[in-house]
Amino acid sequence: MNWYVLYTKSHQEKKVAIQLSEMGYEVFCPCVKKLKQWSDRKKVIEEPLFKSYVFIRTEAHKRERAFDAYGVVRYLFWLQKPAIVKDEEIAAIRDLLGEFVHSEIEVVQLEREDRVRIKSGPMVDKEGVVQKVDQNYIEVLIEALQVKIKVDIRNNKVAKLQTR
């Protein structure tokens, strides 16, 4: 069985995950807790980490049945085939969502299109391509998922693998 990425209608990720789970699929909808401020109160809510994405683990011949869930739009494709996500990448996302404290920081002259390897924390030894560099953050493209992750370079060690 493989992990696949389903693209969902906007703001339907958690509902799709519940429906698919009830249909017997193994589903992963990574969520992060965020503090939201309204005019009269503050509340901690869970938001999907990847907007409009839900991960589903199934056999290839059972993929089409997932469209029975309301809110499923399509599978994410890579090179004209449904994108397959490795078990290690799902595990890394799960680890990323756990609480983790880093002690040392060292990032030097990262630029757009640099290939980097994360040297500390739950994403240790994962590689990606820098898409954007801000003062305290870099956006790294995880190629297998075709998603960008924002990395706080104040709390993570990152090594540049090659120059442009």
Coarse structural class: mainly beta
Largest sheet: 5 strands, antiparallel
N- and C-termini, Cα separation: 37 Å
Return Rg in Å: 17 Å
Describe this structure in words.
A hairpin with a 2-residue loop joins strand 7 (77-78) and strand 8. Strands 1, 2, 5, 6 and 9 form a 5-stranded antiparallel sheet that branches. A 5-stranded antiparallel sheet has the order 13-12-11-10-14, with no helix packed on it. The protein contains 2 helices and 14 strands, in the order E-H-E-E-E-E-E-E-E-E-H-E-E-E-E-E. 19% of the residues are buried. The N and C termini lie far apart (37 Å). Helix content is 13%, strand content 41%. The chain has helices spanning 13-22, 87-97, and strands spanning 2-8, 26-28, 31-37, 42-48, 53-58, 72-75, 77-78, 81-82, 84-85, 115-118, 127-133, 137-142, 147-152, 158-162. The chain is mainly β. It has 2 domains: 2-85, NusG, N-terminal domain (Alpha-Beta Plaits, 2-Layer Sandwich); 115-162, SH3 type barrels.
Give a concise summary:
By secondary structure, this protein is mainly beta. It is 13% helix and 41% strand.
Short descriptors:
164 residues; Alpha-Beta Plaits; 2 domains; 5-stranded antiparallel beta sheet
Topology (elements, then pairings):
Layout: E1 2-8, H1 13-22, E2 26-28, E3 31-37, E4 42-48, E5 53-58, E6 72-75, E7 77-78, E8 81-82, E9 84-85, H2 87-97, E10 115-118, E11 127-133, E12 137-142, E13 147-152, E14 158-162
